[in-house]
Design a protein that fits this description.
It is built from 6 helices and 4 strands; from the N terminus they run αβααβαβααβ. With 165 residues, it is mostly helical. It has one domain: 3-Layer(aba) Sandwich (Rossmann fold). It has a two-stranded parallel sheet with strand order 1-2. Helix 2 crosses helix 3 and helix 5 runs antiparallel to helix 6.
Length: 165
């Protein structure tokens, strides 16, 4: 997932997981809540990153072992991935864990709408942080050279239960 806070990444991720329960959700917010007791606590990025790596490996393990039943074939990495260097690092980490096909889903929602949604959240992201992430995406938008096999850009508002990946 790629998008600024308020773009609908987590909402869409939850909808996809509800529709495809054998998919695995890897969320930096959930990791922060687990590690620090609150998803709003930014905490140590190296510690969070090590948990992302651990969860990638746990997600791909059943695929590599040809586990019976409904193995995980898809994992959703729910993070902003607004900075090109971070996107590339996430792709490299996923490939190192054993994932072979990586699709970027860019929720390119108008920044004004994201700011409005942010104001309605329980946990608000500072406006200047959202604007900075937006600038990062404008300056270096997601692209296949980031290491992606496919890139889907969604410019609409995420409110439906279905998406074509």
């Amino acid at each position: 997932m790629i998008g600024i806070p308020g773009s609908g990444k987590s909402t869409l991720a939850q909808q996809l997981i509800a529709e495809f329960p054998h998919w695995r959700l890897i969320s930096t917010d959930a990791i922060r809540a687990q590690l620090f007791g609150d998803e709003a606590v930014q905490g140590s990025w190296p510690l969070i990153w090590s948990q992302v790596e651990r969860q990638f490996r746990l997600a791909v393990g059943p695929i590599l072992k040809n586990a019976p039943g409904k193995p995980v074939r898809t994992a959703i990495y729910d993070a902003t991935n607004a900075v090109r260097q971070q996107r590339r690092a996430a792709v490299e980490l996923a490939r190192a864990a054993g994932f072979t096909q990586i699709t970027g889903l860019w929720l390119d929602v108008p920044v004004g709408l994201c700011l409005e949604r942010n104001q309605q959240r329980r946990r608000q992201v500072p406006e200047e942080v959202i604007l900075q992430m937006h600038r990062h995406l404008c300056d270096a938008p997601p692209a296949l050279p980031d290491g992606l096999d496919r890139l889907r850009r969604h410019t609409g508002i995420v409110e439906t239960r279905h998406v074509v990946l």
